[in-house]
Sequence to fold (111 residues):
Amino acid sequence: MQRVKESELMFRGGKSGVKYLMRGPRIDWGVILLLPGERLSGHYHNEVEETFYIVEGEGTIIVNGEEHAVAAGDVLRMETRDRHELRNSGSTNLKLVFIKCPYLPEDKVDI
Fold:
């Protein structure tokens, strides 16, 4: 068994951004916290499928050029090669869980 405490791990950007909770051997997963006005830059994956679960807040996800409003309780699955970008377009924090499978840490392509 592997156990971590989210509160003991840091976001990549300090107070916000991506926070990996577990990496490999078969999946990557963690949380993303975007403060009002922040965004997760556009990217896609060649072989990895990515799923998001919106825990709190509201925002906008752009998938292959189309904007979609998202809010707490929404679940979104990106197929391989789906170009996606996430923005906190709300007035409160946007927090979501992400799951990426299979574990291929070099698979991300920034756009």
